[in-house]
Prior knowledge:
This protein is 95% helix and 0% strand. The protein has one helix spanning 3-64. The chain is rod-shaped and about 95 Å long. The termini are far apart. Keywords: Membrane, Transmembrane, Transmembrane helix. The chain crosses the membrane at residues 43-64.
Amino acid sequence: MDLKLVEAELAKMMAETSKLNAETAKLTDERIKLSKEHTWMPFVWGVTVATALIGATAAVVKLLH
């Protein structure tokens, strides 16, 4: 094979590798972001339910008082 063809093929493969590495990094960052958001959701739901229960209790107490 001609050396120039080998170098051209190598450059093409290196460009493709760089592209795939960048895409992998982007997907990894997105996965980390989603996992952090997913971690907070039980806390958010817990606070929401607790607030609703406290509000309902306060309304009943006001109504009966």
